[in-house]
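## tool: complex_structure
## caller: assistant
## args:
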Amino acid sequence: MAEKPEEILKLFSKSEELLEMFRKGRAFTEELMYENERLRYRSVQLEREKMDLSGTLVREIERIKMENAQLTQKVEFFNSRFEQIEAENKDFAQRYVEVEEQNESLANLYVASYRLHSTLDPSEVVMCINEILMNMIGSEEFGLFVVDEESNELLLAGYEGEIAARLERGRVSFGEGLEGIVAQTGEAFFTEGAGEHGEVCACIPLKIKERVVGVVAIYRLLKHKGGLSQLDHKLLELLAGHAATALVSSRLYAEKDRKLKTIEGFMSLLRVK
Amino acid sequence: MSGKAFLVVDDSATFRQLLCMSLARLDGIKESDITQAIDGQDALEKVREGQFDLILTDIRMPNMDGLEFVRRVRTELNQKDLPIIIISTKGSEEDIQLGMSMGANGYLSKPISMAKLRELVTGIIPE
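## result:
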């Protein structure tokens, strides 16, 4: 059974090679196991990171959703506030127009009443009423009548247009015609709107308390006026009271002044004698 | 419109007062900036004597009417650039054309509204 030494050596060398191969295999297996461990660790790590990220993502989505809801609420609030401010703005603009109209109306009424009471000369008072009727109301044809208490008639004291030519003697009896009826009843009369050529019928009594001292009758307005406005009605209301007072007080003053001058004349004559 | 001088020409004292009050309600205008004239003759003398930025005149006036006044301001006084607004009870298209042909820069019909007066005045003299 003795083998040859070359064969033994060959066998020994092969077993050495085999051993070396096993050693290498072991080292490789160990390396693989280490790599496997590392990869598993990395996988766990990535899994954790993934979970962390998805958690963050969910939280971020929730936060953005909340922010979105808040912003939507804000937009809704701003929209409603904008609408509210716009409505307020419109309301202010409307009120501005109203205040402007009221100012205009007050300015007209102030000037009219100021002018009516700025003189004690009856002819100036009549002129002032004429000016108000022409320039402020826009009457083209009108008559201003004063009550003549002696004859119980209306006497035409101021006019514009053809009324003087239409009236015989420039007088109207109480109860006759619209002017006479208004003087008798003390009730104003108005027609709505104006005709094609400005024809209108407005007749107002000039009164001190219940006593009628005159009548203003408007027969035609300026062609470009559509009718009597609210301001015109206010001016006519003002005329009804203030013009009456101005007319009567100026007439009384003129009468007293005339009497005073007559008495003074007598007195100076007596002194001379 | 602060510091601007205005001339109001009308034979009706009532309307002059109303117009002065209305002008004084525009921004920057004081009643002391407004001069009054009782007819065209009076107004012509005032234009000769002073400097005005805007004239507002009636048409129907004694001595010299508004149209003659405008014509003389443009020709006699050679004030071609002086703005003039006519304010009159005459409000037909022909009346307006006649007024503008005489050299007026604007036309308002009586009774005046504050809004129209503001529009016309600020159109000629910016606020």
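## assistant note: The first helix of chain A runs from residue 5 to 116. The domain at 109-262 of chain A is CATH 3.30.450.40 (Beta-Lactamase). Handing back to user.
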